Amino acid sequence: MIMTHETGAFALKTTIVRAALVTMVFACGSGTAFAATAAAPPDATTGDVRCIVVEATKMGAARDPAMRGEAGSALLYFMGKLDGRVPTLSLATAMDGQAEKMDSAALIADDQRCQTELQAMSAHLGQALVDANTAWLKAHPQPAPKEPGPEKPNTAPAPNTAPAPQAAPAPQTKPKTP
After folding, report:
1. What is the torsion angle, in degrees rounded to the nearest 10, for the CA atoms of residue 68, residue 73, residue 78 and residue 83?
2. pLDDT tens per residue across span 68-91
3. Do 28 and 113 contact (CB within 8 A), yes or no?
4. Over the chain, what HEC string results?
5. pTM over 0.90
6. Backbone angles phi, psi at 7, to 5 degrees
């Protein structure tokens, strides 16, 4: 079956056997490993382009919004890597060139390779966040929580023992004389 996915400025044309695509999508969700193997891509740029082809294909084929979201996140990860490494790369041309070379076995094998990289990066980022949080807590120590002490009885505040203010004496007037 020929599957065409057009998005924005580029058209991705891939030939994929429907059964292989469905198998790949379900396997990604269940964690099943495939025995399919493909030669490693000749360089990191080609490998990332192939991962984009895989993730774009999964995104286009997924009916489940969560799977579409996962594929979209992975797609952005690999696009970011490419943009950082080769900002002038014509992504549409590179994707079309790689998609033409990928059969269903290569698509499955590349998906495994891409997922392995994503899992490793996720673990690395998770550990980096833990390390950053630990360092922040060391730099900004929090006060220790107060240990509960014995309960004090409810007492009224101490009475005011200061003398009460005195009223000012009345002014004295001289008696009138007749």
Report:
1. 120
2. 999 999 999 999 999 999 999 999
3. no
4. CEEEEEECCEEEEEECCHHHHHHHHHHHHHCCCCCCCCCCCCCHHHHHHHHHHHHHHHHHHCCCHHHHHHHHHHHHHHHHHHHHHCCCCCHHHHHHHHHHHCCHHHHHHHHHHHHHHHHHHHHHHHHHHHHHHHHHHHHCCCCCCCCCCCCCCCCCCCCCCCCCCCCCCCCCCCCCCC
5. no
6. -140, 120
